Amino acid sequence: MMNSITLIIPCFNEEDAIPLFYKETEKIKKDLRGYQLEYLFINDGSTDHTLQTLRDLHSSFPDKIHYVSFTKNFGKEAAIYAGLRESSGDYVAVMDVDLQDPPEFLPLMLEGIEDENYDMVGACRVNRQGEPKIRSFFANQFYKLINKLSDTQFVPGVRDFRLMTREVVNSVIQISEYNRFSKGIFSWIGYNTKYLEYTNRKRVAGETNWSFWQLVRYSIEGIINFSEKPLAIASYVGLGSFIVSIIAIIFIVIRKLLFGGSAYGWASMISVILMIGGIQLLCLGILGKYIGNIYLETKKRPLYLIKEKDNTNNYEHK
Ligand code: UDP
Ligand code: MG
């Protein structure tokens, strides 16, 4: 059989983008050194006609187009994981369907793996043109913060778009944790990775599924999953305020002995109480976030459930 590259494409309400994606990606087929392209769409619980679009596309090209459809929306992370598990190609790529991940990069990525001996070639955005300024600002701060807090390194602007060898796929599959943060996982596994830089592109169709607050939550998830430092910070802050209050108590006792009691300091006392109370709640919150993750992890729920696959099913679990 011919060697092949599996493209994993998570789709959530993307009926308009799918045909455009397919058309664009087919154009680069000739530059892939004879590798056959195999599309593996993951329908992540879409509520539009994404599934029907995929069924139709599959019946037109049964050998080339495959799909897996979830029972509900499990999120892009789960979709990527499902794709990696279901993939059978010698190389595997993860791509967005909205063409923000330029298909022209696939031949360059292939070159990185085959000629330069990298195990994985990723893509990162060097600018965030067309994105709200405030969002870019927070994104940059996030990368600074997480690189300070975590031993795993995060390349700023890195996308999920990447091409990897079967070995890398097998390593990622072994990491079956429930709280997934792919950007961290791909960095944590090691291997030689090259990053191609590109400038931001607009979506071809549909709308982004990410709101600002979802991104904030996603960032917190990333930090919690790849760093234990916030726990240490919580205890340092606690220790710091403990020492300060000991000094304050000594000060008050000495003042009482030397000058007698005082009714002063009512306001400052309240503010100190509030401050310490606040610090305690903050530390409890940090602790709670980790415990919550442990809770979800110990339930060992599956990351996704599949309702339907294309019937050829000539790909197998590896
Ligand atoms: N996606 C998904 N499940 C979700 C949200 C998004 O599979 O719950 C897919 C979506 O269809 C697209 C990719 O993930 O192919 C990236 O989504 P989007 O373009 O909304 O994110 P952005 O490019 O703005 O980061
Ligand atoms: Mg997008």
Describe the SSE topology:
Layout: E1 4-11, H1 17-26, E2 36-43, H2 50-60, E3 65-70, H3 76-86, E4 91-94, H4 105-114, E5 120-127, H5 133-149, E6 158-165, H6 166-174, H7 182-188, E7 193-199, H8 212-226, H9 229-259, H10 266-299, E8 306-309
Bound molecules: uridine-5'-diphosphate and magnesium ion.
Uridine-5'-diphosphate (UDP) binds at residues 10-12, 14, 44, 73, 75-76, 79, 96-98, 100, 208-210.
Walk me through what this model shows.
The protein is an alpha/beta fold and 318 residues long. The protein has helices at residues 17-26, 50-60, 76-86, 105-114, 133-149, 166-174, 182-188, 212-226, 229-259, 266-299; strands at 4-11, 36-43, 65-70, 91-94, 120-127, 158-165, 193-199, 306-309. The protein folds into 2 domains: 4-227 and 302-317, Spore Coat Polysaccharide Biosynthesis Protein SpsA, Chain A (Alpha-Beta Complex), CATH 3.90.550; 229-299. It is built from 10 helices and 8 strands. Strands 7-5-6-4-1-2-3-8 form an 8-stranded mixed sheet, sandwiched between helices. Helix 1 links the parallel strand 1 and strand 2. Helix 5 packs parallel to helix 8 (212-226) and helix 9 (229-259) runs antiparallel to helix 10. It is elongated, with a radius of gyration of 25 Å. The structure holds uridine-5'-diphosphate and magnesium ion. Magnesium ion is lined by residues 96, 98, 100, 203, 208.
* Percentage of residues in strands: 15-25%
* Helix percent band: 40-55%
Task: Assign the CATH superfamily of the largest domain.
Answer: Spore Coat Polysaccharide Biosynthesis Protein SpsA, Chain A
Bound molecules: uridine-5'-diphosphate, magnesium ion
Task: Report the CATH C-level class of the largest domain.
Answer: Alpha Beta
User: What profile does the largest beta sheet have?
Assistant: 8 strands, mixed
Whole-number count of domains: 2
Order of helices and strands, N to C?
EHEHEHEHEHEHHEHHHE
Gross morphology is elongated
